[in-house]
Design brief:
The complex is a heterodimer of chains A (973) and B (259). With 973 residues, chain A is α+β, with helices and mostly antiparallel strands. In chain A, strand 28 and strand 29 form a beta hairpin. Chain A is globular, with a radius of gyration of 28 Å. Chain B is α+β, with helices and mostly antiparallel strands. Chain B contains nine helices and twelve strands. In chain B, the strands form three sheets. A five-stranded antiparallel β-sheet of chain B has the order 4-5-8-6-7. A four-stranded antiparallel β-sheet of chain B has the order 9-10-11-12. A three-stranded parallel β-sheet of chain B has the order 1-3-2, with helices on one face. In chain B, helix 3 packs antiparallel against helix 6 and helix 8 packs across helix 9. The longest helix of chain B is centred in the C-terminal third of the chain and has 25 residues. Chain B is globular, with a radius of gyration of 19 Å. Chain B starts with 6 loop residues before the first strand and ends with a helix. Classes of the chains: A alpha+beta (973), B alpha+beta (259).
Chain lengths: 973, 259
């Protein structure tokens, strides 16, 4: 039917089905700023538009209903002021504030937030912070913790009111920086440069995977198993294939069987190969059964209902403790299963880890007291707002293009080649903007679905997972059962520390070994004891990673380390209190110090030869000091007056801490490449395989290049993550981009700088000036002779490209590191516990981080804030639960609660800068460490508040209530 | 989806609506923003937004709010009931409150809905639009699947009484593990609604200021085990929350905070 919509003050006439959603019609008409979060109850808000001035979810209206209303999208707001000869008013105050404040990370929800802010400020030009938070409450963000967006809206309001004396300065709020080492002065690195991608994202420009609309695109859907474990006896797709509008239906009988792993990792994959695109067996509720491609997603959905499947149900293993019991059903009995290391599918064992450092038996024998306890950590979801989405098509050269929301484009290409029956050279993978990944997109998860359908139909195919599919069929954090046993002297010296883990990899073994290896390596590696034990620590880490009939676990930011710190830091707290030792002093006494071996580096390297490494920069003690001061530890800890709330005896306050360590890249494995070339105007193209998923890596890499080349960040144009055009990079994981890819960038930039200096010498000679190349300084877009004369980079470029001895000034470089200098942090938390109900309200979270030299403080603070918010959820509310039949409780963002803007605690970030010599600018990593400490710090704060010991996160009200009624501890000593 | 013969109308009166659906085999009423999609066999979409059902008015004691008013509008109209605002904040974020009509919301509200708990405590009444049938909210919830008329025309809410609401969830704004809503229907007589468990629990009445209601609410929650919480916890919690609500109601009554 014909529709007439008033969008951004323009009357738009279009044709649409009567039941077409407003969101879909808007996007078809080119208003791509409204995004799909895959949800059905409007819970994410990414599709926000203004309807008659109010923010509404466009997924919850049909387009026909919107006729007669004023619709506004972010496309109506300002645009880039630089558009050639065309004059533009530029960005509006809200957009500008979002850009300047560092509020834009992945950008997927940014248009929605901007519209919500616009609606608020139109009716309330002087809102309070709480009113801003309420205005943003309808837009879920997983990147920012809403910290900077709230700041941006308040600043924009101030500017729009144009009050006398209002600051017109920057919206940036810089985090507190404390320098532990001397930090060399730099011009660009270390500055909070505006993100290079912010401008396009505040405009809602079509930058994401699903924003590319190709003619003839089919829509894919996947039929998923309703049962946890079954063989497919028969599958009849005739009715589905006969449905008008269906282009293809594929089952396990239609495509070649190629065994692979979905884990996006370097070759050889450090895990078993146990996955095929479509199998004749299903292994969890949600497992793939068939693929459909159709003209519309509605037709594809209808076709799914016409597929007839007969299952032979098998016993299902839901509890990981049942996986290795004698007689347990074998989940992987396929003859083409490929083992890795100690995997043994006959025992449902995906991986096994046995690490012994020193002698824990000796250490326990020498201990005055021994503490034992079991802890359980849950399965949780990354909950990125942009679902997994892939578009595949044949290009004009009959090469398969996979445009996909991925963190690992090069791994996708390599790993998909055999699955699709294509050589690597016939596949191109392009990563556009990603609307969040957090590890869930370090997975070759859905590219094969769309690709198989493109192969069979010859047409472009778009596959976007629904929010329910994200919960039942993507990946998650490994749930684990962790048994801690620690021996200590009465003075608090740790003599032996043991962690035994049972880890649940779910139905497939992706990341089984490497995630759980990290659990031990980066948590247990922090505590080495004191005195003689520090020189020769006694540490044991044993883990079994088992298959169950639940959705597969995979990579989630932190990559096994949060699962280690919940039990470890809760355990350390319990020990410190039992000994009567101050929790801060206990940690400082026993944790790593500069110049010591990371103990696990002497014994473990993911199945490769260990590479012993001394940790040179350890700012942990200063992190503890700074964080303690910021939160008021001395005034609060042990102060009964602070712990109580006047007039409300049922309320108790508590304060807690956790000290943590993460990793920076994987030594001798992670490799990144960079290519830099000069343009006619003296600007540069920087091509990197590194994958910016909203983390700001494009910006930080540009800063490093700009620093070396002596230009502004705006003179470095970054293009990343295209397997045809950019050098290899292993992708965005293991906190490696700044450290590994950054060093590759610097190497390339230094070579380009060398060529520039050579060309400058020629130009100086034209002026009669003899200059040695290594005396030429690059700064402010010019090359400077020692006597102060200069030539511009534009002159150099024109000379090199056009005038004489023509050459393209460019360089390619790559880097792999022999070291992995860990970042450290101290996480502090205060809570308010209602002892009458068990409800815990987290009031304040402060993290002091040693991430080396911080390349971009505002962007890095954004990473810390967003990570803390995810860790907060891990601490108090997030979990994925299954009934005895493997049916999930959580299938949407209503039941799986992630924090809204109007319920966040106060968050503060402090950077303690150490200078890490192994990086050209002293950097380590900050991306994952914020996931590690909040949950145990909150657990410790709850203990402090009311004595409730919670051993299994999340810390739900019922658990607190139960603990208050029934304390259950085991102590042997 | 077979939509070749699907048509769309936006009637401006009840008569026009009745006429349009009189001879149609299968139609769907579009009642503002919502999540439900029309079924594949629908032949007529009837958009009810032009029927004037988005208004809110007071008749002295009662708020009458149209079925196409949104949750946000409901909140604005009941802004004098501070605790009712809390039910809305927990129910959903601002976008959904701006989008979801009361009619659509009621069609899917269940035991975990804090707003439903609040309205049940206030003893709201429902008037269906097409048939004019009037029901208590309790009657509506019991038999809405059997009611042919799917369009809520109006909610009538006695909203000048003392009202209190308490909720416990995993976070300040998570859906409740348990919530309790109390309104004082007459001096010393309280109507109590309990939400949180998936199933709808019967409302309770308490008489007398000295009656804590603890035994009654414990009895009510005795078999409330579900995937979110145990009955034992909910019983304890229910008693605590009820006590807090009653305390608030008494305080409100004594300070005459209501309109």
């Amino acid at each position: 039917m014909k529709l007439t919509l008033l969008i951004n003050q323009a009357l738009i006439e279009c044709e649409a089905e009567p039941t077409a959603r407003l969101l879909d019609v808007l996007r078809e008409q080119g208003y791509l700023s409204a995004k799909s979060g895959g949800c059905v109850r409007g819970e994410c808000g990414a599709c926000t538009v203004l309807m008659d001035g109010k923010p509404v979810n466009s997924c919850m209206f049909l387009a026909v209903q919107a006729q007669g209303h004023f619709l506004e999208t972010v496309e109506a707001r300002g645009d880039n002021p630089q558009q050639g000869w065309k004059r533009s008013t530029g960005f509006d105050a809200i957009q500008q504030a979002f850009i300047e404040s560092g509020s834009v990370q992945c950008g997927y929800c940014t248009p929605a937030m901007i519209l919500a802010a616009r609606a608020l400020l139109a009716s309330n030009p002087n809102p309070t912070e709480q009113q801003v938070r309420e205005a943003l409450s309808g837009v879920l963000c997983r990147c920012t913790a809403y910290v900077k967006p709230v700041q941006a809206v308040l600043k924009a309001a101030e500017l729009m009111r144009a009050e006398p004396g209002a600051s017109t300065g920057s919206t940036k709020e810089e985090p507190r920086m404390v320098d532990l080492d001397e930090i060399p002065a730099t011009l660009t690195v270390g500055k909070s440069e505006t993100k290079v991608d912010a401008a396009k994202l505040v405009q809602g420009n079509p930058a994401f995977t699903a924003d590319l609309q190709l003619a003839g695109t089919l829509h894919a859907k996947v039929l998923r198993s309703p049962v946890a474990h079954a063989r497919i006896l028969s599958i009849n797709v005739e009715k589905a294939r006969a449905l008008p509008g269906v282009a293809a239906v594929l089952t396990w009988q239609d495509i070649p069987r190629v065994i692979y792993s979905t884990a996006g990792q370097s070759d050889p994959i450090p895990g078993p190969l146990d996955m095929v695109s479509l199998d004749n067996k299903v292994r969890f509720v949600g497992d793939r059964v068939a693929f459909v491609a159709a003209e519309t997603s509605q037709i594809a959905e209808e076709a799914l209902g016409l597929i007839e499947v007969a299952y032979e149900e098998l016993p299902a293993i839901i509890d990981m403790r049942d996986a290795m019991r004698p007689g347990a059903v074998q989940i992987h009995d396929e003859p083409d299963y490929v083992n890795f290391d100690k995997s043994d599918p006959s025992q449902n064992l995906a991986a096994e880890i046995r690490i012994d450092i020193g002698s824990v038996e000796k250490g326990f024998a020498e201990a005055d007291r021994i503490f034992e306890q079991e802890y359980v950590v849950p399965k949780v979801q990354q909950a990125h707002i942009e679902p997994h989405v892939t578009l595949t098509y044949w290009d004009e050269d009959d090469r398969l293009v996979i445009r996909t929301s991925t963190q690992v484009p090069f791994h996708v290409r390599r790993q998909m080649a055999p699955v699709l029956g294509l050589p690597v050279k016939r596949i191109r993978v392009v990563k556009p903007r990603i609307g969040g990944g957090f590890g869930n997109k370090q997975e070759v998860l859905i590219e094969d679905v769309a690709a198989h359908l493109t192969i069979v139909t010859g047409r472009p195919v778009l596959y976007e997972m629904s929010r329910e599919e994200e919960f039942i069929a993507s990946r998650s954090r490994h749930p684990m059962r962790v048994r801690m046993k620690t021996g200590v002297k009465l003075d608090g010296t740790i003599t032996a520390n043991e962690m035994k883990v049972l880890s649940d990899t779910g139905a497939y073994g992706c990341h089984a070994l490497t995630v759980t290896g990290n659990t031990g390596q980066k948590s247990m590696g922090l505590y080495v004891g004191d005195g003689e034990y520090r020189k020769s620590p006694n540490i044991r880490f044993h883990a079994d990673i088992v298959y169950t009939n639940t959705p597969p676990s995979g990579a989630y930011r932190g990559y096994g380390v949060p699962q280690g710190y919940w039990p470890l830091e809760r355990h350390m707290e319990h020990i410190a209190r039992a000994l009567g030792v101050d929790p801060l002093e206990f940690r400082i006494k026993n944790t790593l110090r500069p110049g010591e071996y990371q103990p696990f580096s002497t014994a473990w390297n993911e199945g490769r030869e260990p590479s012993p490494e001394i940790v040179e920069t350890v700012g942990l003690t200063e992190c503890v000091r700074q964080g303690a001061r910021a939160i008021g530890w001395a005034e609060k800890f042990g102060n009964p007056v602070w712990h109580s709330v006047p007039g409300k005896p049922h309320l108790r306050r508590g304060i807690g801490v956790a000290t943590v360590m993460q990793g920076t890249a994987i030594p001798y494995l992670d490799m990144g490449g960079a290519s830099i070339k000069i343009n006619d105007d003296g600007s540069f193209n920087l091509l990197v395989g590194a994958t910016d998923l909203g983390t700001g890596s494009d910006t930080v890499l540009a800063q490093m290049a700009a620093e070396v080349l002596g230009v502004g960040v705006g003179d470095v144009v970054v293009y990343s993550s295209d397997t045809d055009f950019t050098p290899f990079d292993k992708g965005a994981y293991a906190s490696s981009t700044t450290y590994i890819s950054g060093t590759a960038v610097v190497k390339a930039a230094k070579e380009v700088a060398r060529q520039i200096r050579q060309r400058a010498v020629m130009l100086f000679a034209d002026q009669g000036l003899e200059v040695e190349a290594d005396k030429v300084l690059l700064r402010d877009g010019c090359a400077w002779a020692p006597d102060g004369k200069s030539v511009t980079l534009a002159e150099i470029a024109l000379d090199a490209l056009h005038h004489r001895k023509q050459e393209q000034i460019m360089a390619v470089a790559s880097y792999v590191s022999p070291s992995s200098p860990p970042p450290f942090a101290a996480q502090f938390a205060t809570v308010l516990v209602d002892t009458g109900t068990g409800q815990v309200t987290v009031e304040e979270l402060i993290m002091a981080v040693d991430g080396g030299v911080i390349m971009n403080p505002v962007a890095a603070a954004g990473q810390i804030e967003g990570g803390i918010a995810q860790a907060l959820g891990y601490g108090v509310c997030e979990e994925m639960v299954y009934d005895p039949h493997g049916q999930p409780r959580e299938k949407d963002l209503v039941d799986y609660h992630i924090f809204r803007a109007d319920e966040m605690p106060a968050i503060e970030t402090i950077f303690v800068q150490t200078y890490e010599k192994t990086h050209p600018f002293g950097a380590k990593a900050v991306a994952e460490i914020p996931l590690d400490g909040a949950a145990p710090a909150i657990g410790n704060a709850v203990l402090d508040a009311c004595g409730a010991e919670i051993f299994n996160n999340p810390i739900t009200p019922e658990k607190v209530w139960k603990a208050l009624h029934d304390i259950n501890k085991t102590e042997v000593g | 989806m077979k939509t070749e013969k699907m048509s769309y109308i936006r009637p401006t009166s009840l008569e026009e609506l009745k006429q349009a659906i009189a001879n149609v085999r299968s139609y769907a009423l579009l009642a503002g923003g919502g999540s439900a999609k029309p079924g594949v066999d629908v032949r007529l979409l009837v958009d009810t937004q032009a029927l004037g059902l988005d208004q809110a008015n007071w008749d002295g004691q009662n708020l009458k709010v149209g079925g196409l008013a949104t949750l946000s509008q409901l909140g604005h109209s009941l802004s004098h009931l501070q605790d009712f605002g809390q039910t809305l904040a927990i129910e959903s974020g601002l976008n959904v409150r701006n989008t979801l009509s009361l009619s659509n919301w009621l069609s899917m509200a269940a035991g975990r809905s804090p707003v439903l708990c609040g309205l049940r405590a206030l003893d709201a009444r429902v008037k269906m639009f097409i048939t004019g049938r009037e029901l208590t909210l309790e009657e509506f919830l019991r038999c809405q699947l059997q009611i042919d008329d799917k369009l809520v025309g109006e909610l009538e809410i006695p909203a000048t009484r003392p009202f209190a609401f308490e909720s416990v969830g995993r976070t300040p704004l998570d859906l409740p593990i348990l919530c309790v809503g109390v309104s004082e229907v007459e001096p010393g007589k309280y109507r109590i609604a309990v939400g949180g468990p998936d199933m709808l629990l019967p409302v309770l009445y308490l008489e007398g200021y000295e009656n804590s209601g603890e035994a009654e609410i414990r009895r009510l929650l005795k078999t409330s085990d579900d995937q979110w919480a145990s009955a034992g916890y909910r019983q304890d919690l229910g008693a605590t929350l009820l006590a807090r609500c009653l305390q608030k109601c008494i305080q409100q009554a004594s300070t005459k905070e209501t309109r």
